[in-house]
Design a protein that fits this description.
The protein has helices spanning 26-35, 54-61, 74-86, 100-103, 123-134, and strands at residues 44-48, 66-71, 93-97, 110-115, 137-148, 160-168, 171-178. It has 185 residues and is α/β, with parallel strands linked by helices. The protein has a 7-stranded mixed sheet, with helices on both faces. Helix 2 (54-61) links the parallel strand 1 and strand 2.
Length: 185
């Protein structure tokens, strides 16, 4: 697992032992960042269910202003800190240990949110519902959700909307956009 491009290009990231964490494959990660490549620089990012931190680290490497990484596992939090340090991206990273769904009630707003929870749990649907209920995306914000290809995600409410779905074998990326107006900026 490596950083694809940007300031930390080519840096090898450490991975967690065991099967509890399923890192995003290189093919899916490259596709994801191709989809959002013009929506990263200077943005505030949330990597929820961060695992190894690879999505947030890739965003920081590509010029995101800040990334908050949230994971409930102590070993994941320590690994994210190590990976951020390996890449020299500490100044833009905030790593938080705790329940991802509870974190959504913090009142913080983000431009870009990565959701990649364990597939076997119902966490993705719950996270989407809470993100829209608490409206934590800034105007014109983007949510990228990774799920099993056959998983049907819930319908999101205004000002959020489904933008597009992309399928990569057994994996699906779903991109949601939040509309914006002058009050949101």
């Amino acid at each position: 697992m490596r950083v694809i491009t940007g300031s930390a290009r080519g840096r090898r990231l450490k991975e967690l032992e065991g099967m509890e964490t399923r890192p995003t494959t290189d093919k899916v990660k490259e596709s994801l960042f191709s989809i959002i490549q013009f929506d990263i620089e200077g943005r505030r990012v949330l990597d929820l269910f961060a695992g190894t931190g690879q999505l947030g680290i890739e965003a920081l490497s590509r010029g995101a202003a800040e990334c908050v990484f949230v994971d409930q596992r102590s070993d994941a939090v320590e690994l994210i800190r190590e990976n951020v340090k390996i890449c020299g991206l500490e100044s833009g990273a905030r790593v938080r240990k705790g329940d991802a769904l509870a974190y959504l009630r913090s009142g913080e707003k983000f431009d870009l949110i990565f959701l990649d929870p364990p597939y076997a749990l119902d966490l993705l649907d719950q996270a989407l519902e809470q993100i829209t209920r608490f409206d934590i995306c800034r105007g014109h914000g983007i949510i990228v959700a990774e799920s099993a290809a056959d998983h049907i995600l819930p319908t999101v409410q205004e000002p959020y909307s489904l933008y597009r779905e992309y399928r990569y074998g057994k994996i699906k990326l779903t991109v949601f956009h939040r509309s914006g107006n002058e009050d949101d900026e």
